[in-house]
Amino acid sequence: MASHSTRVIERDGLDALVSALKAEGYRTIGPQIADQAIVYDDIEGTGDLPEGWIDEQDGGHYRLEQTGDARLFGYVVGPHSWKKFLHPPMQTLMRTRREGDTYTVTPGEDPAEPFAFIGVRACELAAIEIQDRVFTGGPHVDPHYAARREGAFFVAVNCSRAGGTCFCASMNTGPKARDGYDIALTEFGDRGEILAEAGSDRGEALLARLPGRAATEADIGMATKVVEATTASMGRTMKSDDLHDLLLANLDHPRWDEVAERCLSCANCTMVCPTCFCTTVEDRNDLAGIETERVQRWDSCFTTDFTYIHGGSVRPDTRSRYRQWMTHKLATWLDQFDTSGCVGCGRCITWCPVGIDITEEVAAIREQQNT
Question: Suppose 345 and one of 61, 106, 123, 173 were both cysteines; which one would form an S-S bond, judging by CB atoms 3.0 to 4.6 Å apart?
Answer without folding.
Answer: 123
